[in-house]
Amino acid sequence: MPSLAVANVLHRKGRTAISVVAVAVGVTAALVLTGLTQGSLREVVERMQNVDADLAVHLRGWSLVLDSGWPLPMSARQKLLAIEGVERASPVAATRFVILGQGHTAYGIDPSDFSEVGGYRKILQGRELRSGLEVVIDQRLAQAGNFQVGDRIEAQGLSLPVVGICETGIPVRIFLPIDAVQEHIAHSDRVTFFFVKCTSPEVIDATAGRIEETLPSLKAQALSNYYRILTTTFRGLHQFMLAVISVALGITFLSILLTMYTAVVERTREIGILKAMGATRWYITKEVLAESVAICSAGVVVGMLLSVAVRAVIEWRFPLLTVELRPRWFLMAAALGIVGGVLGALYPASLAARRDAVEALSYE
Description:
13 helices
């Protein structure tokens, strides 16, 4: 025989289904939005940390993440190479392309030395960059846009032939020769920043200090700290995630509060009968809470399945986005749903437990 709580859940199937869906929506929102935020952030960090360089050197007061343009003269390269501890300094002239309806950062690089400092790991099709108007793209962008070697990418009013497709996992998805950016986009010989490779890992911090001391207008940041750089730049990221979780908890709380309050009102006479038969306040409270936990548990399971489905749809529709769903996030989502359900059921449970048996029996 099912327990009283399960029987109550099954008695009003339509209302139970609506409550389950409400909980599932809250769980799905928390999982998918957190997964999209963290997944995209982690992918960017991992790709940047795959660079063989140790430092990113840019203009002081300029953001490596948010700012754009070409604030540094190319001549700064020789000054960097003259500093003790610097083995290589590879210039990058960054620009923005819109491809497949999505904005992408493209790096204009020096093909002669970029592969030694921060370049693509391996050319899978085609060849390396040489000079002029041509691009190498990564495999994920090629698959998303069905690009092949020899195809052309239209961006910034330019028609750029794809001469190579490289491995995924590099700092950006699009590379072109730096002279093409400087001549056709920047219209100057200036650059955005430099990737710097140090003579050994032990001298990275000391080299960064010497760069900033010798060239005080520059800032040298270790690429190993790129996650901190991102989270510092997007200071509202944690607040955003907290807001998402709070909204999900609120949806669960309100849906369960309404459901259980309605159920208690509808079952006033039944509660009176139970009390007349000797049911204690704790028994009544326990049954109401058990019913809410049953609904929330079903909502959590549906929400988890829905999250996996939504991730599949997002990654199919937007193949360059990453939605990360970690096992511990599922556990947190389960706890979120159960806690929200219990909190939402506390008042209806207390209301039911305080019902006077005689008054409840006379309720119509």
